[in-house]
TrEMBL record:
Pfam families: Peptidase_C65 (PF10275). It comes from the Eukaryota. This is OTUBL thioesterase. InterPro entries: Papain-like_cys_pep_sf, Peptidase_C65_otubain, Peptidase_C65_otubain_sub1.
Amino acid sequence: KEADHAQIMALAEALSVGVRVAYLDRSELNTAKGDVINWVEFGRDTTEQSAPLTLLYRPGHFDVVTK
């Protein structure tokens, strides 16, 4: 299914989970923080310890990424 920010926010809220999206679409990075990937986080807890649902966005589609 197609999803955008609104749908991902709703998913995170409905499931009470954190969702992290790695955007690989050449969007602007915060190089001052040393970022090499543009991460956008949704939901309550998106720390590594909470095991958020992690999605990889490449132009045109999302992939689910797990450890």
